[in-house]
Amino acid sequence: MTGKDNINKQSVSAVKWSALGSIAQYGLSLGAQIILARLLGPENYGLFAMGVIVLTFSNFLSNFGFAWGLIQLQDLTTQDIRFAFTWQLISGSLVAGMLYLFAPEVADYFKEPRVDPIVRWLSLACIISAITAPANNLLRRNLDFRWINIIQVISYSIGYLAIGIPLAYYGTGVWSLVAAWLSQAFLMLIMTFIRHPHSIRPLFWYDGAKAMSGVGFTVFITNLCNWALDNLDRILLGRFLDSHAVGLYSVGYNLASTPNKLLIGALQPAFLTAGAKFQAEPERLRRAYLPVIASVWVLIAPLFVLFAIIADDLVGFLYGAAWQLTSVVLAILALSMPVYITWAMSTPILWNTNGKQFESLLQLPVLALAVWALYAFADKGVVVVSLITAGILCVRSLVITTAACRRLKIGGQHLLPFFARGWAVALLVAFGTFAGIELGSIASAFFGAKLAVVEGAMAHIKFDLIVRVSKHLLPLVGGVFLGGGVFVFVVLKFPRLLGNQVLGMLARFSSRFAPKVQGKGKVALRAGI
Fold first, then answer.
1. Which residues contact 71 (CB under 8 A, 6 or more apart)?
2. Helix (H, G, I), strand (E, B), or coil: what is residue 521?
3. Residue 162, Cβ neighbours under 10 Å: how many?
4. Minimal CA–CA distance to 60: which of 266, 222, 186, 178?
């Protein structure tokens, strides 16, 4: 087997394991977040979200970017690892100290004194995540996504299911979320280092330090820009409104973005790592990029359309009436998630074609637009902020995707068929979802009427909870069943509607899609690196 064939095999294995890990993490996180949201309510979630906004910013500062060089460097030495670990530890410690000292100012900005101790405790995560990054990126470099995902699932299960939920049940409020976050981060540090131990001897400078520092600085600026674009909505909501509004918005945002982030986590690292090995082969990158973008719009976008349509019943059933406004946030943001994935899968192209500096430079005007729009309209409420966020995601994706396509000489004629096929599948899925919800609503009304009769005859028994649950559950089940059924039916019975690029991608994971008739003969479809 040649080196390139081995990378092909490793890349497919990485994506498979990442996909399995993403499904497991999504199931765990959805269950945990539902239970915690019901136990804690919007206000506690809002307080924690304010602290996490600052923490994610601090993590970008503490993870200065040295560890990313461990992926990008063609030839890696022990000195590279020691240098990256040393400066990750230094930057993480400095940022944690600054965050601890300036916690009162953070609380003043949000006009919420309860945020002060939350920020101080979360500052510990800056050090933990900074020194976890080298071992984690060494696992990514080796395409060891099997263990990356095992570690994430175990650490999340212990942090949130074994620690966070019991603490919330016993009335610790927002501190249950803080404890869960820190526990997960610490467990990831321990397990990641056990899986890929490395030298922790300090090394402050060496011959390759300049190159490593250059990568680190570029990653730092890029992450800073991305952090601002990802968090401005909650920063300004917390400033102009209150913790209750931030809680409502954050839960909707997390519901929409969690499957999105898991998909990106499954695809982007493997795409970036494998692509880094072929930086001098743009045609190979082009052949990998087109099937990925096609799959996003033809396979993933219709599922987010289904997600948006069932948002009202999903939130009503899972979270209850107190969270109902969250459903509007969820619906708006779910429709914008495919463009977010498109952006995420386009950034590795810039990094692997010597254009890594363009990710931040091209997004600076978008950042300026986001600051103006959110500062001007954040006080109008969570729905307006959701619309602005969705619009900014679209502009951001358009800018970066256009730049990636130009570097690979990809034109509109290559991309438009993907969007057309995606819209066709999405419309079919939407029709099935709406029909399922309508059938479920009819069944729910019939069920409610029957219960009302029974309740009238048995006045000592209350059926309010059953009625409220069935009001959302039956339409939700109907929408998911028919909408998802239409999607599966199209994929299995009309695969040619998906297009050759998507079929080529699917063929890498299932032989069912490998040979397809095209014209008078048969061709084996292939995709990817």
1. 137, 140, 141, 272, 273, 276
2. strand
3. 12
4. 222
Q: Does an H or E element contain 524, and which?
A: strand 521-524
Residue 206 and residue 83 in contact, taking contact as beta carbons nearer than 8 Å = yes
The answer to whether the beta carbons of residues 135 and 195 sit under 8 Å apart is yes
The candidate with the shortest Cα–Cα distance to 313, out of 328, 298, 291, 303, is 328
Query: How many other CB atoms are found less than 10 A from the CB of residue 352?
Result: 27
Closest CA to 234 of 61, 112, 398, 100: 112
pLDDT along the chain (529 residues), means of 10: 52 62 74 83 82 74 66 79 90 89 90 90 90 89 83 92 93 92 94 93 84 70 80 83 82 82 64 55 80 90 95 87 87 94 87 80 92 91 93 94 91 90 95 95 76 51 53 89 95 89 78 53 40
Estimate the crossing angle of helix 115-122 against helix 3-62, to 10 degrees: 140
Side chain identity at 457, as an amino acid letter?
Answer: A
- Taking alpha carbons only, the member of 212, 432, 219, 209 closest to residue 310 is 432
CA–CA distance, 243 with 114 (Å, rounded to integer): 10
Instruction: For residue 517, give the H/E element and its range.
Output: strand 515-518
Strand, helix or coil for residue 515:
strand
Report d(CA 307, CA 150) in Å as an integer: 27
CA-based max dimension of the chain = 86
